[in-house]
Amino acid sequence: MFVEDLDGAERGRLAGYVREVDRARFLLGVTITRRVLGRRFSLPAAKVGLDRTCAECGKPHGKVRADGVELSVTHSGDLVGVAIADVPVGIDVEAVDPELDVDAAARVALSPNEVRDLSGYDGIAKAQAFTTYWTRKEAVLKATGEGLRGDLQAGVPAGIQVQELEVGADHRAALAILSAEPPFIRVKDASQLLN
To answer: Which residues constitute the domain of residue 33?
Structure first.
């Protein structure tokens, strides 16, 4: 498909995925990122310099970075999202899992106030509400660079704006940026970019 756009480290990571669906999501996320940045910098997609070096271990599985922009990539279920900004940004999308043990997950990931609010929901609405909380938290942790090492139960720190994104009933998504001002968000379908 778009493997020719990937560098050696990305091809290695692609080969490491066991499930075909995970390979497809990773490949699509990298391809979208490379093609958007290629247009922005007037470069062929394969020539866009992306760096995934983990700050802790030096292996190529960290948050994706490129000179001159801030990036975040996410994929879950049927969706892949890429956020590009001039300030630190985080995006998260999650498929709503009706089989999730929401109460157990909430005890680990949500603040006491959020757990209390969640108790007002039942069934799929409860799974949707939990997933909304989760995507907001993960988007913030991606924007700050903390990742899942950060405090999931904390609220949104000052100076971070979070916006929920409309992605349909089966998924939830959120975007976070490190800015005092609300973000200007432009959502685009990547299908034209991929043709």
So the answer is: 1-68
pTM: 0.89
Question: Is 193 inside a domain boundary?
Answer: no
How far apart are the C-alpha atoms of 92 and 75, rounded to whole Å? 8
The DSSP output letter for 148 is: G
Same domain (yes/no): 97, 164? yes
Mean pLDDT of 4-12: 87
Least-confidence region, from 33-37, 148-152, 164-168: 148-152
Residue 85, Ramachandran bin (φ over 0: left; ψ between -120 and 50: alpha; else beta):
beta
End position of a domain, from candidates 36, 68, 100 = 68
Tokens of 150: 């950060």
152: domain CATH number?
3.90.470.20
30 — pLDDT class (breaks 50, 70, 90): very high
Asked if 136 and 164 touch (Cβ cutoff 8 Å), the reply is yes
The pLDDT confidence band at residue 123, using thresholds 50, 70 and 90, is: very high
Answer yes or no: do 89 and 145 share one domain: yes
C-alpha dihedral, 23 to 27 to 28 to 31, nearest 10°: 180
DSSP alpha helices (H): ranges in the chain? 8-16, 20-41, 102-109, 112-118, 123-144, 191-194
Q: Which of 44, 68, 92 represents a domain boundary (last residue)?
A: 68
